[in-house]
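Q: I have 213 residues here and want to know how they pack in 3D. Can you give me a structure?
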Amino acid sequence: MKNLAEKYNVSCETIEQLKTYQSLLNEWQQKFNLVSNSSLSDAWNRHFLDSLQLMQYLPNQAETLVDFGSGAGFPGMVIAIASKDRTPYLKVTLVESIKKKTLYLNEVASQTSTDVEIINGRIENIKNRKFDVITSRAMTNLSDLLKYALPFCHQKTVCIFPKGQNYAQELKEAHKQWKFKCQIQPSDFSAEGKILIITDISKKKGGNKCQEF
């Protein structure tokens, strides 16, 4: 656990709070379908650490973050918990349209003493807000994510989108409708997974090549 805390620059207390979060996931999964049952046995790697790794890509100056389609809280709630001692100035907002999932997210926030804004509603109904960082995991394809993200972007907004093995096809389709800058980072917990770090989104035909690291 100490090595893990050092790797992602978070405290051992944060790791313990994430363990509390995992216990709540196991409990609530019996009532609600929060994650796939097949992923539950390896939830620590597939959900918690997979989300925690995104902390290394947050801009140091970021003060606001919104997570689209938070579901069971990945990655947004994990980031909110990890930010408490690492970047306490970061205000995290979770957006989830399904009420029972927001009930669960509020319980996690309460049990881990995490100050996080949880919105039960649809992304397109949120108006007049801009964020420094936008995250989303497994909500929809990249083209639609960019459509949802654009109204929330200012000039320096960074979008961080974990993607699976079809990431290259999603990028190809997105470039047909959008112009953006993109870096592709490997996932620490999935051989096929990638993390897309996207900036400068505009609705324009054509696109830019992504640089893979």
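Q: Anything worth noting?
A: Strands lie at 64-68, 91-96, 117-120, 131-136, 153-163, 178-186, 194-203, 211-212. The chain has a mean pLDDT of 92.
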